[in-house]
């Protein structure tokens, strides 16, 4: 885990250096795309059409107030467009991810908790 923390810290320092360099040169710095999404279901099952219902199942959002971490890729973003009225989502920071996993998270190995 210390290797990952060191790698993350190095990455953060590199981003800060790039921002400063761009500011000194009078340029703009484009932030890198996030790799992780956190999605929470905010609407229940009543009067839900079949297609959004199936997409919510695929995203593992079977109950109200369930949340999942998802990788950011094109198919996931397309699915989120379909279920946008029923979910809320965002890009979590490392601190938020760590807090959520320590408080509520669990890992699965061979489909067992």
Strand order of the largest sheet: 2-1-3
The share of residues in helices is: 40-55%
Radius of gyration: 18 Å
What letter string, H or E per element, gives the SSE order? HEHEHEH
Main structural class = alpha+beta
Number of strands: 3
Q: How many H/I helical runs?
A: 4
- Report the mean per-residue pLDDT as an integer: 88
Largest sheet: 3 strands, antiparallel
Strand fraction: 5-15%
Structure write-up:
- By secondary structure, this protein is an alpha+beta fold.
- It contains four helices and three strands; from the N terminus they run αβαβαβα.
- The longest helix is centred in the N-terminal third of the chain and has 24 residues, at 2-25.
- The radius of gyration is 18 Å and the shape is extended.
């Amino acid at each position: 885990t210390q290797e990952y923390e060191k790698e993350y810290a190095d990455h953060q320092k590199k981003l800060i250096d790039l921002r400063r360099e761009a500011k000194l040169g009078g340029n703009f710095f484009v932030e890198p795309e996030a790799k992780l999404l956190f999605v929470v279901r905010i609407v229940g099952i009543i009067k839900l059409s079949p297609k959004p219902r199936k997409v919510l199942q695929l995203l593992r959002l079977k109950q109200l107030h369930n949340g999942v971490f998802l990788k950011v890729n094109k198919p996931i973003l397309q699915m989120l467009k379909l279920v946008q009225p029923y979910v809320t989502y965002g890009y979590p920071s490392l601190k938020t991810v760590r807090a959520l996993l320590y408080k509520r998270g669990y890992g699965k190995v061979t489909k067992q908790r």
